[in-house]
Specification:
This protein has two helices and 34 strands. The chain has 453 residues and is mainly beta. The chain folds into two domains: 44 residues, no CATH class; 388 residues, no CATH class.
Length: 453
């Protein structure tokens, strides 16, 4: 990666920042030869950060593979900035939020609910920084299940996309999944069923050659003629040996117990989806920690390489849980929980993407009253300063290998930590459930050091 791409992050080149936008200092460093090379420290005063949102809820129309927008979602942007529409195939959809101030002070989410003859449920997910390499875990393409991948390119350069898809029987031979062109400032949506039909547990690896893009999965469920499930799933950047889901909410037996007698509702049972993309089987340890009183549960399992596995965790008691997975091989994983409101009859599900460990400041916009989960996977305690919607900062300490859950209200939640910590927000409404994460910028653009010679 060139020095210019590191410094500008979303700008065409260093000149896009203006001559006054950086400071260069030359620092001599003696070598054994007696010749002092020059080191250049470049500290940009402001860096453009682009965050992309997928936009409307979309519907897949039968075998025709027609994708149409059926309902707008809502974007909330904090920290200032402007939203610019992307151009979709058939309608204006999606947005690219550009912030040229402090990059950590911008946050954007999408949320919305539907209750129609075709779609019912609630979604909320973070908008994200474009990536060239990302993984999407969740959804299904079996009968009554639609999963749609939306690829958004908010840059001025076209992207050529290759998709690799895994399922329960291994890697999927998916015609048409390579060489997908997403032009500059545009968006494309595709039914995953067109690449992997009748697949109950897909995992998608997206590689963009050219511009970085933001991709999401949207999943909907219809059981017979009854809709009951809507979610949008954000991506994870890379396989890892440690995976964290800081908060998942397991529903009560009273709310969903009667549904589970019907096999068509099996996908509202709490479960983990796992993939070892390498060639060596993995041994994993899953730790399930309740936030209420009760004992932690530890489960070990062997995961075969090269195929996806949905592992039910249905024996958990109702309430909020933190889930961590440790593996001896790099894995990707997602987590699913269900919801049913007996009064309204609405059934929903939520797929949680893994939350990365992050140090420093991160903001997450919360659409309503919710639970914020924080997890510390390290061997030392972590101090986190929390500011909810512009209020006073509250410092909390998370012990080594510990967790913490905090109620938060609508607005912006800013977290500042002195060591790596992962975060997630669980939202429950009358219309359904969703999870979202606060994510830092994918690179640190505060300063770059280049050594010459």
């Amino acid at each position: 990666m060139s020095i210019l791409s590191k410094v500008t992050f979303g700008a065409a080149g260093l000149t896009a920042l203006g001559l006054s936008a950086y400071v260069a200092a030359f620092i001599p460093t003696p070598l054994s030869t007696g010749i002092a090379p020059l080191s250049t420290v470049i500290s940009p005063e402001s860096v453009t950060r682009n965050i992309v949102c997928s936009g409307d809820v979309v519907g897949y129309i039968g075998d025709s593979a027609t994708i149409s927008g059926i309902s707008p979602t809502t974007q909330i942007v904090s920290g200032g900035g402007t939203a610019t529409n992307l151009t979709a195939d058939s309608a204006t959809n999606g947005s690219a939020i550009t912030n040229s101030g402090v990059s950590l002070d911008v946050s954007a989410i999408e949320f919305g609910s539907l209750d129609t003859d075709a779609v019912a449920g609630y979604l909320a997910t973070e908008c994200g920084d474009p990536l060239n390499d990302q993984w999407l875990i969740g959804g299904s393409t079996t009968t009554g299940r639609d999963t749609i991948i939306t690829i958004s390119n908010g840059s001025d350069v076209e992207a050529r996309i290759d998709l690799e898809i895994w399922g329960s029987a291994g890697k999927v031979d998916a015609p048409g999944s390579h060489g997908i062109v997403v032009p500059a400032q545009s968006q494309r949506s595709y039914s995953v069923a067109g690449f992997a039909p009748d697949e109950g547990s897909p995992v998608i690896h997206l590689v963009s050659n050219g511009a970085a893009v933001w991709a999401t999965l949207q999943t909907t469920v219809v059981r017979g003629l009854v809709p009951g499930g809507l979610d949008r799933i954000g991506s994870v950047a890379t396989p890892t040996v440690s995976v964290s889901f800081p908060v998942l909410r397991v529903p009560t037996e009273k709310s969903i117990g009667k549904l589970l007698a019907d096999p068509s509702y099996a996908d509202i049972v709490a479960a983990l989806r796992l993939l070892v993309p390498g060639e060596t089987d993995a041994t994993i340890t899953i730790t399930l920690d309740p936030y209420a009183e009760g004992e932690s549960q530890v489960v070990s399992a062997s995961i075969p390489a090269g195929s996806t596995l949905d592992l039910p965790i249905s024996e958990l008691s109702a309430g909020d849980w933190a889930v961590t997975i440790e593996s001896d091989q790099p894995i990707v994983a997602g987590a699913r929980v269900g919801f049913h409101d007996p009064a309204s009859g609405i059934t929903d599900l939520a797929w949680a993407s893994a939350s990365p460990d992050q140090t420093g400041t991160v903001s997450v916009t919360v659409p309503g009253d919710a639970a914020l989960g924080l997890a510390n996977g390290g061997s030392s305690e972590v101090t986190v300063s929390i500011v909810n919607n512009g209020g006073l900062a509250e410092d909390v300490i998370i012990p080594a290998r510990g967790k913490l859950i905090i109620p938060v209200g609508q607005g912006v939640v800013t977290l500042t930590s002195n060591a790596p910590v992962s975060n997630a927000v669980f939202v429950q409404t009358r219309n359904g459930i969703a999870t979202l994460r606060g994510l830092t910028a994918p690179i640190d653009a505060s300063s770059v050091v280049v050594t010459h010679g």
